[in-house]
Amino acid sequence: MAQRGIFITFEGIEGSGKTTQSQRLATVLGPDALLTREPGGTHISEQIRDIFLTSDGITPMTELLLIAAARTQHVNELIRPALHAKRTVICDRFIDATVAYQGYRGDIDLAFIHQLNHTATDGLTPDITFILDLSPEIGLSRQQQGGVPRDRLDRESLESHRKVREGYLSVAKANPHRIKLIDATQSPDTVHAAILAEYQDYVW
Ligand code: TMP
């Protein structure tokens, strides 16, 4: 008998479709699955999200510390209790986003980020992570077509989005068992089917 529920995370650059795909998986798994996001997920962490997304002039280190603060609250208040109650938890972004955004894009020392991630989560690591991969050119053009409101990070240069993608690809390479790299240029239905197949593989 499993000690706790399964912890699944979704990652990807802007416009990769991870939010849609995490919602689709949650719908398939039903009401027992908890869908949440980072930064955010609890009242305190959502307030930190607002500061994080709307503060122009914020430094990469301030970003990192805000993310860590939001994460520790989220893990302790919501994620761990749900896993303990044997619920499946699906989180839209988690520790790998910090490596990609604050590490590769923000140029903060990766060893420090890993240490802080470990401290903020008390060692909680996802069981499965889906990285929805596509080029930043396609991701950004998709987002513009979708008319999604653009936040501070969406407005950054193509170069910055390239660094984030590079970060995700290197994290995927370093964690081949946990991380499933999914080609996000495929149709949403094909991406969903690939995710479901990986999930079923893990569960059975
Ligand atoms: P979202 O657009 O997926 O809701 O994510 C909000 C933004 O937060 C996104 O631009 C990526 C950023 N982010 C980081 O920079 N570091 C992190 O650790 C996380 C979780 C998100």
Topology at a glance:
Layout: E1 7-12, H1 18-29, E2 34-37, H2 43-54, H3 60-84, E3 89-92, H4 95-105, H5 110-121, E4 128-133, H6 136-146, H7 158-174, E5 179-183, H8 188-203
This protein binds thymidine-5'-phosphate.
User: What's the Cα radius of gyration?
Assistant: 16 Å
Under CATH, the homologous superfamily reads P-loop containing nucleotide triphosphate hydrolases
Number of domains: 1
Main β-sheet description: 5 strands, parallel
Question: What can you tell me about this protein's structure?
Answer:
There is one protein chain. This protein has helices spanning 18-29, 43-54, 60-84, 95-105, 110-121, 136-146, 158-174, 188-203; strands spanning 7-12, 34-37, 89-92, 128-133, 179-183. The protein contains eight helices and five strands, in the order βαβααβααβααβα. It is globular and about 45 Å long. Helix 2 (43-54) packs antiparallel against helix 3 (60-84), helix 4 packs antiparallel against helix 5 (110-121) and helix 4 crosses helix 7. The model has no long low-confidence stretch (mean pLDDT 95). It has a single domain, classed as P-loop containing nucleotide triphosphate hydrolases (Rossmann fold, 3-Layer(aba) Sandwich), CATH 3.40.50.300. The chain has a five-stranded parallel sheet with strand order 2-3-1-4-5, sandwiched between helices. 39% of the residues are buried. The two termini are 13 Å apart. It has 204 residues and is of the alpha/beta class. It binds thymidine-5'-phosphate. Residues 38-39, 63, 67, 92-93, 97-98, 101-102, 153 line the site of thymidine-5'-phosphate (TMP). Thymidine-5'-phosphate binds next to helix 3 and helix 4.
